[in-house]
Amino acid sequence: MSEPRWLTDEEQQVWRDFSQAAAMLQAHLEGQLQHESGMPHTYYEVLVSLSEAEDRRLRMSELADARRSSRSRLSHAVARLEAKGWVRRESCPTDKRGAWAVLTDAGFAALQEAAPGHVEAVRESLFDPLTPHQVRQLGEISKAVLARLSPRCAAAAEAAEAGEFVAPVVELPKSG
User: Fold this and answer.
1) CB-based burial of residue 145 (10 Å sphere; 0-12 exposed, 13-18 middle, 19+ buried)?
2) Can you give the C-alpha Rg of the chain in angstroms?
3) For the chain, what is the largest distance between any 2 Cα atoms, rounded to a whole number of angstroms?
4) CA-based angle 73:76:81, to the nearest 5?
5) Contact at 8 Å (CB) between 3 and 76?
6) Most buried pick, 18, 119, 126, 150, via CB within 10 A?
7) For the chain, where are the alpha helices, taking DSSP H only?
8) How do the pLDDT tens digits run along the chain, 176 residues long?
9) In angstroms, rounded to a whole number, what is the distance separating the alpha carbons of residues 79 and 63?
10) DSSP state of 97
């Protein structure tokens, strides 16, 4: 096993700041949506994906891929959204095992009601503290990280769906 590429002091600080900022941002946005709209961020994202799709419908597998979610987790979320009357499932006429998730008018109305507060929370929390140059840098940085991780995450998701996922073993250095 090769020697780990330890983080420099500066990299360690950047990593900790980034990790804490990302967690705080997610928690803030989750709390805002729960408080103002009574929905978790995950459900909001499902509604957004469906609202942007042609005829406000996506195959369940496409919706799971778009949300970077396991099919079972997405199915649970869609069941909750169905119970609220915001989404309905329809059988796929060309694939007996396939199903469509369809955004209902009530779901679209719930999204329209939630969106202004959510967008304001995103703007206030993420974009307002940044200069236009920093916003562009954040976009470039985000794209670079996504480009690196997307193929790995897709492969891990496929393995997990097939029941083949095994958590990697990480050996930590011995202190002393």
Assistant:
1) exposed
2) 20
3) 64
4) 125
5) no
6) 126
7) 9-37, 41-52, 60-66, 71-83, 105-122, 132-161
8) 789 999 999 999 999 999 999 999 999 999 999 999 999 999 999 999 999 999 999 999 899 888 888 888 889 999 999 999 999 999 887 777 789 999 999 999 999 999 999 999 999 999 999 999 999 999 999 999 999 998 777 666 666 666 665 454 444 444 44
9) 14
10) E
Nearest to 106 by CA among 174, 26, 39: 39
CA separation for the pair 145, 42 (Å, rounded): 21
β-partners of residue 58 are: 101
Strand pairing partners for 88?
102
Are the CB atoms for 85 and 93 separated by under 8 Å?
no
CB 59 within 8 A of CB 98: yes
pTM: 0.80
Cα–Cα distance measured from residue 164 to residue 25, given in angstroms and rounded to the nearest whole number: 32
- Amino acid at position 116, single letter: P
Give the three-state DSSP class for 91.
Answer: strand
